């Protein structure tokens, strides 16, 4: 899947487009960008959460600049946006 593809998270825990658990993503909300992995709980409800890496504070400024350069329109939306993380940044995450 291409970097910066928007992932819609539905109330039932499904995503559009469908992505695998532990897919590296950027969470964009209120002009702030956070790196992490989109994960599914193994429970019956298939809850979705974002697991943030140990080095999140180091990577978030780089993630913000990438969003500014590639999809700045997401920084000013009234809702949270989840997008696929570029590979070069995803490879730097430490869990």
Largest sheet: 6 strands, antiparallel
Radius of gyration: 13 Å
Structural class by SSE content: alpha+beta
Shape: globular
C-alpha termini separation: 22 Å
Uncertain segments of ≥5 residues (pLDDT<50)? none
Strand content: 25-35%
Number of helices: 2
How many structural units, i.e. domains? 1
Secondary-structure element pattern, one letter each: EEEEEHEH
Helical proportion, percent range: 10-25%
Strand order of the largest sheet: 2-1-6-3-4-5
How many strand elements?
6
Q: Average pLDDT across residues? A: 95
Keywords:
single chain, 95 residues, alpha+beta, six-stranded antiparallel beta sheet, 2 helices, 20% helix, globular
Summarize the structure.
This protein is of the alpha+beta class and 95 residues long. It has one domain (6-90).
What does this structure look like?
This protein is of the alpha+beta class and 95 residues long. It has one domain. The protein is built from two helices and six strands; from the N terminus they run βββββαβα. It has a six-stranded antiparallel beta sheet. The longest helix is centred in the middle third of the chain and has 15 residues, at 56-70. The model has no long low-confidence stretch (mean pLDDT 95).
